[in-house]
Amino acid sequence: MSTSSLRLGVNIDHVATIRNARGGQHPDPVRAAEMAAKAGADGITAHLREDRRHISDGDIDRLMGAITLPLNLEMAATDEMLAIALRHRPHACCLVPERREELTTEGGLDAAAQHNHLAPYVGQLVDAGIRVSLFVNPDRIQLAVAKAMGAQVVELHTGAFCDAVNEGRAEDAASELERLRIAAREGREMGLEMHAGHGITFESVGPVASIPEFVELNIGHFLIGEAIFGGLDSTIRRMRALMDQARSSSTQIA
Ligand SMILES: CC(=O)[C@@H](O)[C@H](O)COP(=O)(O)O
Ligand SMILES: NCC(=O)COP(=O)(O)O
């Protein structure tokens, strides 16, 4: 675990994706979580999808028993997932939107439109002592609704910014980064703890990590993919170093 003001949550979903390509036990996401802890992660994130395409119920059982880092369980707001969360009581639950046919989580929750559906889930998780986060796009209305529902945390979806960086669309990247900056500030002013994640790479992490209101970044797909070339330990260490570098340069400027 690091002493940085910016925590790194390592998402291990796609270790399970590779395992599931053949069935069986290898590679084991729990082993990846243990390695992540040694490499300087501050938390582990796992998304138990309704279709179980990567993380399984058994993975969550084993993670809860094995890891020393806090677990952030990403889940859809359904009765099935609520029962699983209440049984395990992870450190945090992040409510995310899910569509069966999507390749990945394409956007944030529309908390404003789904207020009546989401609010009881937020309430029951908070009452169980679980830290609740809503995964939303950088939009003031979504933040205000999340706060009004009782969520303590909001995770801003960084996918639009990261896609623009990957595709070399500099103007879009600049405007998406500005949206993240504004929303991070607004959310903090509302009293929300601000997290960010989705699609972050070595190239896109710096600008996101420089936003001072963020206290946690959740990063998965890129780390697991890059680990094929650089090894998991050194890939996580490099991401951690880039985060720290960005945070310390932005502190010096501020
Ligand atoms: C909610 C989120 O952003 C992550 O959990 C990430 O999406 C990994 O899971 P998928 O790639 O299956 O969406
Ligand atoms: N909530 C975002 C997350 O956990 C990781 O997303 P990604 O890096 O796998 O895209």
UniProtKB/TrEMBL annotation:
Active site: H47 (proton acceptor), E74 (proton acceptor), H198 (proton donor)
Any one of the GO BP annotations: pyridoxine biosynthetic process
NCBIfam families named in the record: pdxJ (TIGR00559), PRK05265.1-2 (NF003624), PRK05265.1-3 (NF003625), PRK05265.1-5 (NF003627)
Listed pathway(s): Cofactor biosynthesis; pyridoxine 5'-phosphate biosynthesis; pyridoxine 5'-phosphate from D-erythrose 4-phosphate: step 5/5
Annotated coiled-coil segments of the chain: none
Biological function: Catalyzes the complicated ring closure reaction between the two acyclic compounds 1-deoxy-D-xylulose-5-phosphate (DXP) and 3-amino-2-oxopropyl phosphate (1-amino-acetone-3-phosphate or AAP) to form pyridoxine 5'-phosphate (PNP) and inorganic phosphate.
Site-annotated residues for Transition state stabilizer: E155
EC main group: transferase
Subunit structure: Homooctamer; tetramer of dimers.
UniProt cross-references to InterPro entries, sorted A to Z: Aldolase_TIM, PyrdxlP_synth_PdxJ, Pyridoxine-5'_phos_synth
Family (UniProt): Belongs to the PNP synthase family.
Gene designation per UniProt: pdxJ
Protein name: Pyridoxine 5'-phosphate synthase
The EC number(s) this enzyme carries: 2.6.99.2
Catalysed conversion reaction: 3-amino-2-oxopropyl phosphate + 1-deoxy-D-xylulose 5-phosphate = pyridoxine 5'-phosphate + phosphate + 2 H2O + H(+)
Record-linked SUPFAM superfamilies: Pyridoxine 5'-phosphate synthase
Cytoplasm keyword on record: yes
